[in-house]
């Protein structure tokens, strides 16, 4: 007796509806996860795009603290239009961290050539003085001959920030700009930076001004006819301002500018441990310093 076999029937419509329902739920979960990640990233990178959008990217006026009757204000600050305007943030770089990454990784920096002079401190420390010889940006080049002892052209001494040296992008932009105005420019690299080994038990810090003082004295002795100026950035600005305060009227500089100086280092220390992204920076600084010298312990 033969048994009639029939293949089981499937309700394909029901199967399709259930599958689509499952995919729809999964899709919603993925969208929620993506939204949560974007919110996390927005806060992690401290993006201010929405706040800027609400103000139509009009920016904020530059706030100045100054004495309007001072000679410095009348001769310098009052003539700097940029200081009396507004700060307009770049819409697609509405984050301090994106700005930092863009300058270091994406933005084009001048191709510069330095002539290195070594300066040896009395304690055995080694400081690399990199004199700008030539630079070239998009075909527009400028060339500085070797500075002569009787050269009266102004000399700009650049003091870089933490872990920065003459090869840093913002330093290249600064030295290139000043050289195009006819200045002689030298970058005073901190101990252990610029590819120079640490040759003493003393390292650089925001409170150590002796290296800068000796470098300025050295350059002044070499080029007594040239007026000396200095620009410090970040921790270099802190060192510069501290030096100016310590030497006062005995300072050999004709002028100086401090850019983004961390005036209160205690607040800076607290800030760098404030949030996860700042703690990440702290770890990166530690790695970079340990790469410079394995003998340094942090």
UniProtKB/TrEMBL annotation:
One of its GO terms (molecular function) is short-chain carboxylesterase activity. It holds the Pfam family Hydrolase_4. Gene3D superfamilies: alpha/beta hydrolase. InterPro entries: AB_hydrolase_4_sf, AB_hydrolase_fold, ABHD4, Hydrolase_4. Residues 155-249 form the Serine aminopeptidase S33 domain. Keywords: Membrane, Transmembrane, Transmembrane helix. The chain crosses the membrane at residues 20-45. Belongs to the AB hydrolase superfamily. AB hydrolase 4 family. This is Serine aminopeptidase S33 domain-containing protein. It comes from Salix viminalis.
């Amino acid at each position: 007796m033969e048994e009639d076999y029939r293949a089981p029937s499937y309700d394909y419509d029901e199967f399709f509806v259930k599958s689509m329902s499952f995919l729809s739920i999964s899709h919603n979960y993925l969208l929620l996860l993506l939204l949560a990640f974007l919110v996390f990233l927005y806060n992690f990178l401290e993006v201010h795009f929405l706040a800027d959008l609400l103000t139509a990217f009009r920016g904020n006026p530059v706030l100045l603290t100054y004495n309007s009757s001072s000679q410095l204000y009348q001769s310098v600050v009052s003539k700097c239009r940029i200081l009396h305007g507004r700060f307009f943030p770049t819409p697609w770089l509405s984050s301090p961290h994106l700005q930092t990454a863009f300058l270091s990784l994406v933005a084009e920096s001048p191709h510069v050539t330095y002539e290195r002079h070594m300066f040896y401190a009395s304690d055995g420390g080694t400081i690399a003085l990199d004199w700008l010889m030539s630079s070239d940006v998009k075909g527009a080049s400028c060339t500085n001959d070797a500075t002569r002892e009787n050269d009266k052209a102004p000399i700009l001494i650049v003091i870089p920030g933490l872990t920065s040296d003459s090869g840093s992008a913002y330093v290249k932009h600064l030295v290139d700009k000043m050289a195009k105005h006819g200045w002689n420019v030298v970058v005073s690299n901190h101990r252990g930076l610029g590819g120079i080994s640490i040759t003493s038990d003393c390292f650089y810090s925001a409170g150590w001004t002796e290296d800068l003082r000796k470098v300025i004295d050295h350059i002044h002795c070499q080029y007594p006819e040239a007026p000396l100026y200095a620009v410090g950035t970040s921790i270099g600005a802190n060192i510069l301002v501290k030096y100016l305060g310590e030497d006062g009227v005995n300072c050999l500089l004709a002028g100086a500018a401090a850019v983004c100086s961390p005036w209160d280092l205690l607040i800076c220390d607290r800030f760098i441990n404030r949030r996860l992204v700042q703690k990440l920076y702290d770890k990166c600084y530690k790695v970079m310093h340990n790469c410079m010298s394995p003998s340094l312990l942090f």
